[in-house]
Amino acid sequence: MTKRTRRNHSPVYKAQVALAAVKGEKTLAELAQHFDVHPNQITSWRSQLLEGAAGVFGYEGRAEPAGAVIDVKTLHALPVTRQARELGISRGSVYYLPRPVPATDLTIMRRQGELHMNYPFAGSRILRARTSLARYLTPLPESYTTIRDTTRP
Length: 153
Hints:
mainly alpha
């Protein structure tokens, strides 16, 4: 089977296909067979047409230029969802409060970094055999206090 060469469709052709999809008179499979285009491509062109259609009639919801000044007082009067959209940020990031990394995690990360610098050729099994990260995190039991532990830092 020979490989089909890449086809470049004109914007007029894409608009015809997208309009036929918007009309809904035929199914995607029928349109794909009629226009000899994959159904996913028809869906993509249809969504692009619907997104850009508002611009034809002077859609006012488009993003402001990068240098535009945002009025903070009117922005605070809006709901959080609208504020996030106006600022161009994700709504989920508005509610996110960063938490500090626990000291135990920092100790583990620092030790892992040391091991990778000292043994760059070592994989996870060799590194695990070289050291146990648990000894840096938990204190020794009472029974070990009488014996001097030379392996602890």
